[in-house]
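Minutes, project check-in
Item: structure for the 319-residue chain
Input as provided by the requester:
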Amino acid sequence: MPNTPSLLDNKHPHDRGGAAESLLSNFVAPNSLRAYCVDFEQFETWCISVEQTALPATTSTIISYVEYLIEAPDIYKVDTIKRKIYAISSVHKVADLPTPVTAKVRKMLGALQRKRSGEQQQAIPALSDYMAQAIRLIDPDTNKGKRDQAVLLLGFVGCFRRSELAAIKIADIDFSHKGATITIWGSKTDHTGGGMVKAIPYSSHPELCPVRALQSWIAAAQLTEQHHLFVSIAKGDHIKPDSPCDAEGKMINRIIKTYLGNNYSGHSLRVGFAVQAYENGASGLHIQQQGGWRTDTMVKRYVRKSDIWRENAAFKLGL
């Protein structure tokens, strides 16, 4: 075992990641901070299992870790792997240590990106009719049913990233006669740290209303302002208020797959919002605003298939 001290030395297992948080807190947005701390904790745990040092780490250790992530049972997207490696590099930098993420590592990640780009397909969009069918099959009289309905409806209507859903706290939500407003802190595109506010309107169909679903879940869960909105539910339908979603939103992803099917993913709600809103006449700008995209590039990508039918010149042939 290397003699160089690890960030974990003399720390209780429950304190893992605390040192990383103290190092990064002044340099990273709040939502990213949570993810980075989880990422570095995972790296530390892996280093212990293979008898390597986490801080400072070597380039060869990082390469081995990337190989481990590629082959891990939980299949990580390239962007997720890159974020995990960037978190390790960030901790080294703020600790005034040379980053082990060298050109060799970056070349490896680039090769992985190129390899995966041919394999990845756009997430299947979850559209309104299919969402309605799934929502109506959920038992709203259970705690799990209330939570899962709120996850699906809020994720769809709010065009949320799953990491954004996982990060919401009760204190971030305000209700009015128009619906709910939710402040997202440290979002992927919120580089100023000022927060982004999303408006969630009431639906004309009570059983498909994200605001009512949200209110029903909050009333059942009895969470305080400091609790995360979406938390775990144990056997017996018992709510675990101090067990929030993981920072990456894997629990959100599992809920989506449970009701929509394994072909769908956490991104399906977001893509589905863009496609459905566009097909129903919403402007690209308004879709971009609700989704929190900085440019219209991704919106255009998502609605491209709809575009071949909308305003298609073939309809003007008189046949």
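Outcome recorded: The chain has two domains: 13-117, 128-307.
No further action items on this chain.
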